[in-house]
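Dear H.,

Thanks for agreeing to be a second pair of eyes. The structure we're designing against is below in token form, covering all 131 positions.
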């Protein structure tokens, strides 16, 4: 499965436009990923940052992107550290997780990591208001 993409030319690109640039099978994965994140973070704003679909809730929450052989998920380093045991089967770096396109996408894990990030950002926002 190869995810060839046409880059949006507008700085005002939307997540819909981003997803539309991929083959149908990859679009389905990206739409389900988006819906999974939206379930957990219904109040988050959707935008494009760093040329990736991004959810923002009191700061960046998570980003995701499609590549030739994988879906990248970017929950910041704390989101990766908190789930390092469950992320064992995946290629992980300081701020990124790679989910191979030739294996099932772990939507339940994406849901859990996103919920963790929502809680983390809400706690930071609450602490900031107290100071």
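And this is the sequence the design step returned. I haven't edited it by hand at all.
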């Amino acid at each position: 499965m190869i995810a060839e993409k046409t880059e949006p030319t507008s700085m005002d690109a939307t997540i819909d436009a981003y997803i539309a640039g991929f083959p149908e099978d990859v679009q389905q994965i990206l739409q389900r990923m988006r819906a999974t994140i939206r379930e957990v973070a219904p109040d988050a704003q959707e935008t494009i940052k760093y040329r990736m679909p991004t959810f923002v809730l009191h700061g960046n929450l998570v980003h995701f992107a499609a590549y030739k052989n994988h879906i990248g998920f970017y929950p910041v380093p704390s989101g990766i550290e908190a789930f390092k045991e469950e992320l064992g089967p995946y290629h992980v770096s300081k701020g990124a997780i790679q989910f191979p396109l030739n294996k099932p996408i772990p939507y339940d894990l994406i849901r859990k990591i996103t919920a963790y990030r929502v809680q983390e950002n809400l706690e930071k926002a609450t602490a900031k208001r107290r100071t």
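Two observations from my side: Helices lie at 15-20, 24-40, 76-81, 107-130. The radius of gyration is 15 Å.

Warmly,
E.
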